Amino acid sequence: MKIRTRFAPSPTGYMHVGNLRTALYAYLLAKSQGGDFVLRIEDTDQERYVDGAVDIIYSTLKETGLIWNEGPDIGGDYGPYIQSQRRDLYKKYAIQLVENKKAYYCFCNKERLDEVRHTCEVNKIPPKYDRHCLSLSDAEINKKLEAGEPYVIRQNMPQTGTTSFDDAVFGTITVENITLDDNVLLKSDGMPTYNFANVIDDHLMNITHIIRGNEYLSSTPKYNLLYEAFGFEIPTYIHCSPVMRDHSHKLSKRDGDASYEDFIKKGYLKEAIINYIALLGWSPGEEQEKFTLDELIQKFNVSGISKSPAIFDEAKLAWLNGEYIRDLTPEQFHEKAKSYYEGVVTNSNIDTSKISELLQKRCEKLSDIPEQVDFFDKLPEYDNELFVHKKMKTNEEISKNSLNEILEVLEGISDWTFDTLHNELMNLVEKLGVKNGQLLYPLRVAVSGKAFTPGGGVELAVILGKEETISRIKYAIKKL
Q1: 253 is an active site residue
Q2: Which residues in 25-117 belong to E strands, given as ranges?
Q3: Mean pLDDT for the chain?
Q4: Would you list the DSSP string of 384-413?
Q5: Residue 179, SS3?
């Protein structure tokens, strides 16, 4: 049997990290087994529909390499792949359940349902429909239908026994049927509920494996009762534990937690994002942490999915992103860095490709670039305390003396290259009998106004040029 997985997002906003992980796992499972990855848009909740959200889904999946075999834009043998375009078929299946006594018409209005819910709250029991309309006779139902009374169709849950299902991650799970609510399958506007549409679509699209968040574990018995009522084959369930902001809070769209697009704007590379998300709740069972998408396909196995929640550690993502940055060629890195220099390094005499050479070794994310290079255009205001550094064994007096010595040497250099500057300053260190840091650290601060920079003082001086470097050193001497 060919494995078929699906990613079925609701177009309600940006691509949340948890959504992207679900898509990634579904893609990896299908591709690791030579199967098909299907994209389906679940837009039955029209009130939450967000314009442009479908385009975000398309662009995110394409950018990250999660290319679908079938979907709304490319078609396939099981379309349409947008639920709102399939609405007519859901009613047919809902009526079939009514005829088989597995579902029933419910004519209760909002006021009565609010009353039922209030009664449950007063009695401190979970909210559950009281099955009032299940007792309606066929004559009463027909009369209401003929009168055009609005209705929903509810699932008729068994009131005795248990329902069990097997999950590839959590094992066998059993629930008492009496705890299951008679959920709405078809809404009064004729649109199916999320739970009902999923079952019908997954069956009709021959989906064999369903990967989703473990918040759906409690709903799965209801799905299975539907599968059994129709005589459908039950797919393999793979429920994943949530991605957490910390030990107490899940990542959540509603809480404004970062989307894929947010991380791209923060300067993370798409390859690093996908790599990191893959490891949020899944392990290859080995020490390796850095994987290409092709390597993830080769390594992926459902047995590596953990029951435990995964903590999203942005520091770990930043580290991994830095590894990817260092794997770029100098040309690739400079191309990605260019936009971050705009409006920050505007002096045409500054060769930003030289700055990129320094940054690539030290940069964890591209958005760090502006504040690391803003001093090239204009020396920022800085406090003389910067020249005091315990480890470098410098203070204001030592720094001033060092800068005076450096100035004399640099003014006499005509070949303004790294090798020349470095050699001359090392000769000066030897001549003065001081530590390297006592000479080079004051130089760094003088030319940048910062204690931490992408490169050392010599490297920065080469980029700034002789005239600007000497001007900044003189300014520092005057300040000191």
Answers
A1: yes
A2: 36-39, 103-106
A3: 94
A4: GGGG-BTTTTB-HHHHHHHHHHHHHHHHT-
A5: helix
